[in-house]
Automatic annotation (TrEMBL):
Pfam family, one: BPD_transp_1
Membrane topology field: Multi-pass membrane protein
Organism for this UniProt entry: Pseudonocardia adelaidensis
Name by which UniProt lists this protein: Phosphate transport system permease protein
Subcellular location: Cell membrane
Start and end residues of each stretch annotated as Disordered: 1-22
Length: 324
């Protein structure tokens, strides 16, 4: 069948329009889009402002002679033990909290009955609302005295490991206890992220594994954990960022009296950056103030690097459904 294209013929009204109609943008969409954009820009402005403030205030300490820095050995010698203590406490918390958080998340999502799982989920989330000073008081009044016996046993049987070389602290206010307190504090963060990721595992993957004869644990190991691995890692990085910046709990628990040491159960413990700022800032003046701000700048950069790594891991996660 041919189309009549003679000059006198009428145009074909059924032919599709060459130019599609532009979508109509509602006022609410424009308001929401503008608000979201403004919020994103505001976050970047605030972050840039904080970075600029830290850099400007830290410059006098960066260019000051080594003998003028507190301690008399230079800025690097002042900040290095603080960075070491911060990383050690945060790593202890991460090593302890991550496996426990994954286990709790798996129990809530795949083992516990619905009523128990819901109540346990609320209870874990409630841990995030407890003030850090309460954790610090619990650590110094309960956990520290209770840890002396464990520390003595570790020193008696594992003395050849530098972490437990001793001598054992009689008060229990050690780096090990500080790391355990931080582990309890970051547990809700890692658990919440892991739980949500495990719940997003495609049901077809779980049902296929069970249909092939896998046990519940084998199904979790082959389907749930591989799917949520990147989410667990990102949750752990977020928890690590929280542990790096914790102040009050570490300040209350940790007995600071030494430099860089790997001994976790002794009296000589390096301070963390946040705890050192909280202790020294009220009485600091002049260059001492700038030195503390410089250490805060280092903490800012470390925390920013950790959060950037977590975002990178999240962005690398590939979405897939149970149908492919």
């Amino acid at each position: 069948m041919t189309t009549d294209t003679s000059p006198g013929s009428a145009p074909d009204t059924d032919a599709p329009s060459a130019v599609p109609d532009k979508p109509v943008v509602q006022r609410g969409d424009r308001i929401f889009s503008g608000s979201a954009t403004a919020a994103g820009v505001l976050i970047l402005v605030v972050l840039a402002g904080v970075a600029a403030f830290l850099i400007v205030e830290a410059v006098p300490a960066l260019v000051a002679p080594a003998e003028d820095i507190p301690g008399g050995h230079g800025l690097v010698a002042y900040i290095a033990p603080l960075v070491f203590g911060t990383l050690v406490a945060a790593l202890i918390a991460l090593v302890v909290a991550t496996p426990l958080a994954v286990a709790v998340a798996l129990f809530i999502t795949h083992y516990a009955p619905r009523r128990i799982a819901q109540g346990l989920g609320y209870l874990v989330d409630l841990l995030a609302a407890v003030p850090s000073i309460v954790y610090g008081l619990w650590g110094i009044l309960v956990l520290a005295p209770a840890s002396v016996g464990l520390a003595t046993w570790l020193n008696e049987y594992l003395w050849f490991i530098p972490l437990f070389a001793g001598p054992v602290s009689s008060t229990g206010r050690t780096m090990l206890v500080a790391g355990l307190v931080l582990a309890v504090m970051i547990l809700p963060i890692i658990t919440a992220v892991s739980r949500e990721v495990f719940l997003q595992t495609p049901k077809l993957h779980e049902e296929a594994a069970l249909a092939l004869g896998a046990t519940r644990w084998e199904m979790i190991r082959m389907s749930v954990i591989p799917f949520g691995r990147s989410g667990v890692i990102s949750g752990a990085m977020l928890g690590l960022g929280r542990a790096l910046g914790e102040t009050m709990a570490v300040t209350i628990v940790l007995s600071v009296s030494g430099g860089i040491t790997f001994n976790l159960i002794g009296n000589g413990n390096p301070a963390t950056i946040a705890a050192n700022i909280a202790l020294e800032f009220p009485e600091a003046t002049g260059l001492e103030n700038n030195t503390l701000v410089a250490s805060g700048l280092v903490l800012f950069l470390v925390t920013l690097a950790v959060n950037s790594l977590a975002r990178y891991i999240v962005n690398r996660r590939r979405e897939f459904s149970g149908a492919n």
